[in-house]
Amino acid sequence: MNQVGSSELKLIPNGHMLGxxxxxxxxxxxxxxxxxxRDRPFSLRFKPPKAKVLLMxxxxxxxxxxxxxxxxxxxxxxxxxxxxxxxxxxxxxxxxALGKSQHLQLFLDKWFTGYKTYIWPMISRYNDIY
Length: 130
Description:
Elements: E1 2-4, E2 7-13, E3 21-25, E4 29-32, E5 53-56, H1 70-86, H2 100-111, H3 121-129
């Protein structure tokens, strides 16, 4: 906990990506940008402490946004990649360079041993950190 003026500031890991945090100001205000509500291989889910005010980014905060279970999405991607490889196709998988690509790389390494893979240099540098 750090003190700024009369307020105590504390970083709270928010699980979005390696090193990401929310900011707790005393017990009054909790701010977080993107956060994750599930445990991931690289980080644990956001467990927000109680605060009087929660201020957060809400890119997908509207009620009509409903996402499928991660397991279902991952299984569908795996099955599609296998299908394409079995048809003799080359497969290109895209993702954000930081965060999602490292998560994806774990799955690709687990499922597709024996296949030659190429990783964009920027992603490779981030992978070295993770």
